[in-house]
Structures are given as C-alpha cells and as structure tokens.
Specification:
21 helices, three-stranded mixed beta sheet, binds D-Mannitol-1-phosphate, alpha/beta, six-stranded parallel beta sheet, N-(1-d-carboxylethyl)-l-norvaline Dehydrogenase, domain 2, binds nicotinamide-adenine-dinucleotide
Length: 483
C-alpha cells in the first residue's frame, strides 16, 4: 500500500485550528479528536498550521494528512499495544508560503477552537513582528492576526470568538498567550473595540497536558513498516496514559467533549494543583534522573528504573525530597507518583534520556529547583539527590565524559556559559569552584544567584569532584552513605 493513496477523514468541517504539527499534538490532541469523531461526538476536523517556516507539512501532505499512531502501555491494568490510522487532520497550511489561505481559516465559521504546542519557546512577544508582515515570526503574533481577521469578517460578532487551548508546558499557558496577544493589539494599534472582543468573546483556557510521547521511533521503524505493510514517515508512538486538565466551563466541555469519548479530560476551575503535581513529580523526576543515569552509562528511562541503584536513587528523590515539599495531600501525591513510576516502567516505550535533556537548565529551574528550595526551607539542609542531579548537570554540560562526547542541546547563552566556565578548569579544586560559582551565579537562568543558598556551592563542588575523580557510581554510593 502507498501512503499517498490513503483516504483522509470523512468530510468533517474544520472545527480546530492547530498551531503545531509535532509528535505531541499528533499523539495527544489529534488522538482525542479522532476518538470523538469515531463516536460521532465531534464531527470536526483539524486544520494544521505549521508554526515555523520549516516543518513536517510536506510529509503530512504527501500522506494525505493521515498517520499511524501506536499506543503502548498499561491499559486497564493490562499491557496493551494498539495502533490505528489517525484521520483527524484535513488540511495543512504553511503561513510563510501561503498567507492568504492562512487568513482564510478565520472565515470558517465552524473553526472555533485553537490548539497549540509550540514548545516552551513559542509563547513570546517580539516587537519586531509587524501587522503587515506575511506571517509574524511568533505564534502569538500569528494568532493575533488571525483573530483580527475573524473579528473583521464577522463584524465583531460576540458568538464568533475562539476557545483557545494551549498545550505548552509553561505556567498559566493561556494567560501568557493572552498577554502576548494583548501586547500585539497595542503594538499594532488594533483598537479598543477589538481588544474588548478578544477579552469578552474569546475564552483563553489554561491547560495542563500529560502523556509521554517519545519522538519518531527511528530505531525500529523498519520493523514497524513491516508490521504495517506501508512506509509511514510520521508514525507517532505514545503511552496509553493520557490526562488533559482544562480550566474551562460547560461551554468549553460542550465544544470539546473528549471526556465523553473515553479520554481523561477534566474541566476544572483551577489547573494549578494538577500542574504543580505533574511538573514537580513527573517532569522533576525526569530532569533529576537524566544526567545521573546518563553519566552512569544508561540511555533510556526504562533501563534507569530497571537498574537497582538508579531506581533507588530516583525513588528517594521522589518520595523523600520532592513529595514532602508539596502542599497537596501526601496520600494523593504518593498515589500519583506510584502511577508515574509505572509509566516510567512502560516496557514498550524507549524514552531516551538525551531527548528529555533538551534545554535542561531551564527545566531544572522550573521543575526541580522549587523542590530544592522548599526542602531547604523545611529542613535547613539540602536535598542530596536533587543537589547530586545539579552537580551531574555541571559535568553533563561539559559536553564530554569518560572520553565520550555528549550532544547538549540548549540555548546559546547556556552553551557559552558552560564553555567559558570549563575552559579555565585546570584540574585544581580552586578552578572547579570557579566553574560551579559561574554556573550557580547565572541569574538569567536561575532568576537569582544560587551561590547564596547556604552550603550549595560546596556540596556541588564536592559531588562534581567525586564524579570526575571516581565516577558516577561512586557519587550514588556516597549520597547513600550520607543517609
Ligand atoms: N513529548 C512529550 O512527551 C510531551 C508531553 C507533554 C508536553 N510536551 C511538550 O511538547 C514540546 C515538544 O513537542 P513535541 O514533542 O511535539 O516535539 P516536536 O519537535 O515534534 O514538535 C515541536 C513543535 O513546536 C514547534 N516549535 C518549535 N519551536 C518553536 C518556536 N520557537 N515557535 C513556534 N513553534 C515552535 C515546531 O514547529 C513543532 O510544531 C515540549 O516543549 C513539551 O513541553 C511534550
Ligand atoms: O517534553 P519536555 O522536553 O518538556 O520534557 C521532557 C519530559 O519530561 C516530558 O516530555 C514528559 O514526558 C511529559 O511532560 C509527560 O506528560
């Protein structure tokens, strides 16, 4: 079979405009839409907008906007692998190549839901974006332009506003997006009445997404193609677990009834507790694990939880150093953590530590540092494992360990910070102190100077010395022996 001959969705009208064509949206939101369509609960399709000039749209188009989605993991307490052909998408638009078609999306009456996943880097304001530009650089700039087109097309009709559901993993994602849209309205002088329409007739809903969607399964793609009988270039794999918490009312639930289709979608008044729980436990555990397990010689999350030493390190980090710092019910947190650990043990998913390591410095700041600081406040001492992870990052970001290169991906300023810091290292303790001080003192990342946390610098220096002189395994033992 040739993927180009695939038939796409039954002819559903476009109901969703989706900014982003990446793995996550295809394995999460588009899965929900496909499921709703199967059960006649939605009868809508997705128009995909490619947020960057380069992306996957040409491949999507060549496959008639369909792709295979594998779900692998524990479902109803049983290990289950299933796959299906997703037909939720109906059209793709690259606004950098066809701005007119992009704007025409605003005229589709049924297209009233906006979803996005433009990574943590996507929700930003850039005053260089201009109204008369064909395709603003930023996602909020593009969205503002689209909203303005809709406002004009429907003469400010209050019933034609959008429901905006961002998936970006940042605090109050919809509030941040709305702030950026408002800033563009001011920058481009789009007027008070448009501003009031955006404010009153559109619903920006903060959301929290949770599903592990590792990247394209390039390692075993040949086996997958053999099983499928066709060469799908956009196979997406995910776990079975899914949770989307949406801060939205009945109107939002009626417009997007994925909960009725068997997806775990909660419509709540406040996403904050769910977000804190997920970011600090699941993402915090990932970010704590990555450098420790990688320098220990492990490549995936599964191998990490199967290794007795790394597993013990991780369990103690979660249960002794992260959970006690959270204010939610301890019992509920422990239940959630147990479920997260089961998800890490998913035998079917190869989640590479290196893929989680992308932009780890900002991830440590948002996902782990709050636990470290709260632990210090509560106990007047530092959480050893979270500090050990920080020390491990110092070595990891050196870009080389035990004669092996490490392909770090992070912002330019972070790469330069580490390069400059390690350049002057001469093997002496004093120069190691300089490396650690330079990193801990980098306020743009930490939003403060971590050298001011009593004892942190010395503990990090000590741990880094152990890693460099004796290896990661010995650091893990040293941390255990301190108990
Ligand atoms: N993969 C997961 O398990 C998972 C789970 C929950 C949340 N997420 C979030 O998804 C993000 C990664 O998405 P993915 O896994 O689909 O990766 P991906 O690389 O497949 O897709 C990334 C998408 O973001 C867009 N993008 C990248 N930089 C951008 C920018 N500066 N401005 C606008 N758009 C930009 C790309 O065009 C692409 O559509 C992470 O930042 C994470 O917070 C991922
Ligand atoms: O996707 P990132 O790069 O923000 O973070 C890596 C993982 O922690 C993350 O993808 C989790 O698997 C996901 O957030 C689970 O819902």
């Amino acid at each position: 079979m040739n993927v180009a001959e695939w038939k796409k969705a039954p002819d559903h009208p476009v109901k969703v405009i989706q900014f982003g064509e990446g793995n996550f949206l295809r394995g999460f939101v588009d899965w929900m839409i496909h499921k709703m369509n199967e059960q006649n609960l939605f009868n809508g399709s997705v128009a995909v907008v490619q947020p960057l000039a380069k992306g996957l749209l040409p491949i999507l188009e060549s496959q008639n906007y369909t792709y295979t989605h594998y779900l692998k993991g524990i479902k109803n307490q049983e290990p289950v692998i299933e796959y299906y052909k997703n037909t939720a998408l109906s059209v793709g638009i690259n606004p950098y190549e066809d701005f007119e078609s992009y704007l025409s999306l605003a005229h589709i009456e049924t297209a009233s839901i906006i979803v996005s996943n433009t990574t943590e880097a996507g929700i930003v304001f850039d005053s260089k974006d201009q109204l008369d530009m064909e395709a603003s650089v930023t996602y909020p700039g593009k969205l503002t332009r689209l909203m303005y087109e809709r406002y004009e097309a429907f003469k400010g009709d209050p019933d034609k506003g959008y429901i905006v559901l961002p998936c970006e993993l940042i605090d109050n994602n919809a509030d941040r997006l709305k702030e950026a849209v408002m800033a563009y309205i001011d920058l481009w002088n789009l007027g008070e009445t448009f501003k009031t329409w955006v404010e009153k007739s559109n619903q920006f809903c903060n959301t929290l997404v949770d599903r592990i969607v590792p990247g394209y399964p390039k390692e075993n793609i040949k086996t997958i193609w053999e099983e499928l009988g066709y060469e799908d270039q956009l196979v997406v794999e995910s776990e079975q677990f899914n949770l989307w918490v949406i801060q939205g009312n009945d109107k939002v639930q009626q417009a997007f009834p994925a909960d009725e289709a068997g997806c775990q979608v909660l419509f709540v008044d406040d996403v904050t507790p769910y977000k804190v729980r997920k970011v600090r436990i699941l993402n915090g555990a990932h970010t704590t694990l990555v450098p420790v397990a990688y320098l220990y010689g492990i490549e995936t999350v599964l191998e990490s939880v199967e290794d007795p030493q790394i597993n013990q390190f991780l369990m103690k980090a979660i249960f002794d150093e992260i959970i006690p710092t959270l204010t939610l019910s301890k019992e509920a947190l422990e239940i959630y953590a147990a479920e997260v650990i089961l998800r890490f043990k998913n035998p079917f998913v190869k989640h590479y530590l290196m893929s989680i390591s992308l932009n780890s410095m900002s991830k440590y700041q948002t996902r782990v540092l709050p636990s470290l600081l709260a632990y210090f406040d509560q106990n007047s001492k530092l959480p050893k494992r979270l500090v050990a992870a920080l020390a491990s990052y110092m070595v990891f970001y050196r870009g080389e360990y035990a004669g092996k290169k490490i392909a770090i991906v992070d912002n330019e300023d972070i790469l330069k910070l580490y390069k400059d810091a390690w350049k002057q290292y001469d093997g002496s303790k004093t120069s190691l102190v300089d490396v650690v001080e330079a990193v801990l003192g980098y306020e743009p990342n930490w939003k403060g100077n971590l050298n001011h946390i009593p004892g942190l610098r010395d503990q990090v220096v000590n741990y880094v010395s152990i890693i460099l002189d004796e290896g990661m395994e010995n650091l893990i033992h040293a941390v255990e022996d301190e108990d």
